[in-house]
Amino acid sequence: MHLKLKEMRKKKPDGEPLYKVYKDLPLIDVHNHQSPEFPYREWDRLGVDRTVLFGGISEPEAMKTDELAWKDYEERPEQVYPSFAGINIYSEKGIAYTRKNLENGYLNIGELAAASTYSPIVSSVKWKAETPSSGKLNEIYKLAGRYKVPVLLHIDPAYGPPIAGLQRVLTRFPKVNFIYAHANVASSPENIEALLSKYSNLFIDFYAGYTEYGDGSEYELKDFVPLMEKYPDRFLFGSDSGYGIGYDGAIAAIYEMIDLLSDKTAVKVAYQNYESLIERQPPTQTQMNKIKSLSKGSAKYKLNKREANELIMKLADKRKKEGS
Length: 324
Prior knowledge:
The mean pLDDT is 95. Helix 5 runs parallel beside helix 6. Strand 1, helix 3 (41-46) and strand 2 (50-53) form a beta-alpha-beta unit. 48% of the residues lie in helices and 12% in strands. It starts with a helix and ends with a helix. The chain is built from 14 helices and eight strands. It is an alpha/beta fold. The protein has an eight-stranded parallel sheet. The protein is globular, with a radius of gyration of 19 Å.
């Protein structure tokens, strides 16, 4: 793909929108709050191939949007990665909810409010953590490690106890892949590098839209290029649904960042890094039991978790048509 990207760059017409220039480069948006009125056709127009959906975060209402994200996944399995964030981290029910969702096929946990003081939205949610290890979060992380799913964490401010707490969980759970949500919004390249250099299980959700178009950004996209080139396997692109700038602007900024990166790094950050976090997840016992039931035990399959989900959908649809 990096060779194809090189050709895209060579053929780039003057004045052509970058989403058209790079339309054949797969792009994954790892951070999107699902919304009933969201125009899904915009994904196709802007060249967003897959989107991690989850809706609300860290409050009871988020359990409903978790369900909506799963329904979107069933309707668009080729475009959606389902995540869930309605976890009560202060109750055993939250542990059971997490285990059930992971068994049933969700591919990501989060965005979880692991710490928030300044966010006008996140700082007031009911199930907000005070630190990244508050309540039963450590038990959530153990489940994430067992099921090999990534965990997206909102953390603010980007200094003091919240970051110290992040460092503790990164150390305690070295096999869990943590994603630091929109890390560039409040962190400098130097502070992000300080974390990346010490913790190989940390990934950065880069909200390019904020850096390029946000009123409060102290940096430019080019300021983060050396860091991405140094750690090409550890960055991901997220739109945060265009918070503060609009979805079009969020995606436009992603392509502007892609335009600044080397071919190999651009391809990794655009989709390969997150795709690798998805494709390594093993199927669950619940999934295999469903497959066995739907196929009447007539076939054997070697699948990962995503593939198991999609096979279940196909088999269920087939059974439904046969019964109608």
